[in-house]
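Give me structure tokens for this 280-residue protein.
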Amino acid sequence: MSNDQTLVVQDLHASHQKTPVLHGIDLRIVPGKVTVIVGPNGCGKSTLLRCMARLHKPSQGAIRLGADDLWQLRPQQAARRLALLPQAPQAPEGISVSGLVRYGRHPHQGLLQQWSVEDERAVRHALQATDVAALAQRPLEQLSGGQRQRCWLAMVLAQETPLLLLDEPTSMLDLGHQVDVLNRIRLLAAAGRGVVMVLHDLMAAARYADTLVAMRDGRILASGAARDIVTPELVRQLYEVEADVLAAPGDGAPVVVPAAFHGAAVAVRTDADSALVAQL
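Here you go.
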């Protein structure tokens, strides 16, 4: 099995119940970088992530992890090399934070490999890296949304894989917790892990991505550094809205500002509305 942790997607096609969803996706994920996939709802972002996580079998194409065909690896082999945090993860009722994070060590267990000092070290490190060590004995269900999301992130960290796949890791978080989680993800990449994220927030994606991948209708429209590819035309293609793209002070990250709304094109009034307006 190869030690190269570069993940390469080649000419990937996938369907849902015979309906084509992905059409010829090519992508390269390298260690130490954050790749963020953006695009409108239903464009195939999560399906692509699920194909990479071996949860959705492609109908055509290949996914290689180093020199290995990802889909030819045994499940435990794959789980030691990549970890997935789904969009809406579920935990057993009443589980503690420590109990949740310990689940991340399951790929390292087996008939001849029981819980070890190394497993304990990995759990402790994951709790510390996500700043939830003080919550280790608390029930997960009693925590805030931001705290819970850091606990889920700790679980995938405990898996100690070189590649992390994160589907909407900031969903339903307020701005402060979004920034906290995204900063922690950047630190993981800086430490050498490859990270692939799906995000809905284009501006957050543009700020935190090394490589931004813009998808529409199951195809990649553009891929590269955010400041090179995020333009008013791309925003129009992705979301069918007019917008200005400005450079953020300091780092120059693209800031997308939707065009002002004037209402003339969509104003619809009933007769009663029109009569009321006429009296004003």
